[in-house]
Request: fold
Amino acid sequence: MSDSGSVLTAVSVPIAREHKMLLLNTTGTGAPFFTKDNPYIVLLADPVSTVWPKYIADFIKDQGVANGIKRVAILYSTNDFTNTQANALRGFLKQSDKVEIVFDQGVPTSTSNYNVLIGNIAAAKPDAVIELGYVGNDIAFLRNLQDSGEQFPFLFTIYSGLEKEEVQKNVGASGLANVFTYVTGAYIDYKPTTGMTNEEYRKVWEATYPGGHVEYGINAIAGYMSGLVIESALAVTDSMDQLALRKAIFSLSGKLRTLDGPFELDDMGGQIGEITPLGQFVADGKDNVKLNTIYPPAFANAKPVFETK
Amino acid sequence: MRRSLWDALLVPAPVLLCLALLPLVVSNNLLLFNFVMFLTLAQGLNVIYGFTGFLPFGYVGFFGAGAYGFAMGVMHLHASPALALLLAGLASLVVGCILGPLMRLTGAYFAIANLAAAQALYQIVSNPALQDLTKGPYGVALSGVFAPTRSYAASLVLLAAVFAVVIWLRNSRFGLSLQALRDDPVSAAMAGISPVRVRTTAWLLSALVAGLMGGVFAWQISVFYPETAFDLSISIFAIVFTLFGGAGTLTGPILGVVILYGIYNAIGITVPQYFQLIYGALIVGLVLFLPNGLASILTRRGIRVP
Amino acid sequence: MLIQALLGGLVFGLYFTLIGLGLNLVFGVMRVVNIAQGSFVMLGAYAAFFAWGLFRLHPVWAAVAVLVAFFVIGLPLYYLMIPRLQVAKDAEMLSLILFFGLAQMIEAGASIAFGSTERSIPSIALGFRSVTVLGQRLPSAWVVSAGVSAVCVLGVYLYLYRTLLGTLTRAVMVSRTEAVASGIDVDRVCAVAFGVGIGLAGVAGVFAPFMFGSVTPAMGDTVNIAAFAVIVVGTLGNPLGTVLGGVIYGVSLLLMQTYLSSWANLLPNLLLVAVLLARPSGLLGRATRNA
Reply:
């Protein structure tokens, strides 16, 4: 099942369970899918949404606070994917008493007009604004923000990193400058234990799909390494029985490293290894932006830039 | 009485028989279920539009209310499917009562207001503030009551019941009074027919049909979002099918569903915009040249269509 | 925040006046509910998008072009569809269904031609990003569209009360049969009114990408309900009444968005239903049946 958001996955989870078939879930990350009583699901390529925002929270609690980032505004779209991330983020941030959440609101996923919301957020005077939505929400938000002239020291959106080309096409390089986002496997060179490296894979991809008709991005990587995981699991499985397959996949947990990072599953089948680091776009001179990795320190290749008014 | 029996044998019986036996040869149960769903909804719409002349653009509001009534019954009261279906019907009746006063409006305003009401219901149900009650925008998962065969059987029972209702309306005094009211309200009122009472009964009946179907839908599909249950294209399809086949008859909506929904499944699923273009053009053509649908081809010549 | 909401609502509301204006005119003159209004707004929006994308045409000029183009399209469209219906038994319902079919065709055509991804126009297209009024920063699009709307309202008012054709139009609004009896070419009057109505919808559409954030083929439905809410709250036939309706709508919408944002989408629907339930005679006179 290849489903970026979670909507198709939502329907397939009970069907797979009913028919007692193992659901190989590439990128559907909603928390409700992984329950203790359902062994028929494993998440292969994206981190489960309950841990995905971990590095954002860690960064803010650690380096953010040291740089005066104390007041946080959370704006999220009300659907499974981003709501789970918002809940997770809130939970992580509340663990620290130096960080204060001054604005916390959910809006419908169909929202495309953020003018009033940006005004409300600005009125709460936050140091950090974290907007968790789908690509349409991110684009609308960044555009309205540009128009409003407001600036925040720390601004985060999900899809700036996950679908950089699409977002940049709509908001321009100036709209993306200094925006924080997730750094996906497409931009980091994990040294995988199996399969091609990022460079090699990209070359093969562009040869197979020339002309940019099919974008190279996180989804391309997710599909490829899901295939690799399945291949590795089939090599070590006892039998084709569904639960034996599950055991085989779980045996790879902790031992396999993929283009997406370390492969590690929790006991409910959720992916907790391939957590995406935090990155920031910086202007690259000629109307383009470059994605630097900021946190965690093990992967960082640049220092963060905080915008001031 | 004899005519009703004849009507029942001629059209609905073969349809029901077909639908009951098809699962044995056709493996796509969801497709069959959708056919049954639209057959039922088209007839429910027929009750209100064909017999009273009111066109509820927001018919899906009752459907969604029923689906959520069922869902809330299962989630909060741990009700059995049968009880939950009753709750679904109740939910749609409540909505029907609240929206009843809209019937004071003229045709066009009623249609738009009804559409707005269905949207309003959708917004209320899907709001995160009501998350504890309806699970808001995050969708409902009723995996505990997932029972595809039994819910399909329930849908067939509902369809049979709706057929019976429409046959009764076609052949009874009550049905005639509805039609009189539609054709000339002032004279009908003078003849002693109470417009408010008669129309409200038809309205609530129609709402009940949609609500029960919504409940069965929730039972069948068991995982759905507010957008699915309140999808406007459900009412639009039901309206188009009924108009195309010929409202006010029993066979009209059946014809409309079988032909148009059949075309949709043949070509429309992959390119729904083309289907939309086709039925849009069909409606325009229909209004200009054949306002009473396919069935009127026969009825114009005086042939009675059941 | 309150001042921002009130001021913004006033300006935003004038835009909604524009959306309702065409609808009000058509209904007043022909007693036809143009449920395809939203679709024409959507077409206007796409026209503006392509005008900007291909020719870098400033939206205000695009609006003028759209007004003329849609008026020209509206005339034959009227003659094709309406006169046949006026003699049918259930003209009002039939015309509703007819326009509904038309709306579906337009929406489908747009989906096929343009695809369903959201398109948007950067507000820099208007020449400036924002304006500061009374200490509140307002997006440029709001101010420009409010200005255009005011011009249109004035235009319609002048048309109805200062031109010959306008006087004839008002006569038809009052009583169609008497107008026919007086020798007025009712079809011509109605055709012009229809063309103007569609043209106004198109102009409203030109600014839709800014006001709503983006344009998709399916946006017609939301626009329709907003348009109906505006004219239901306002008054039939009188363009100034639509101004009142639009402003009330705009202010309440913005207040909702500021203080109760997750419920903001509910407002148009609730407003429409509540007003029609509470005052079934509508503020428009003929909304109720006689029996």
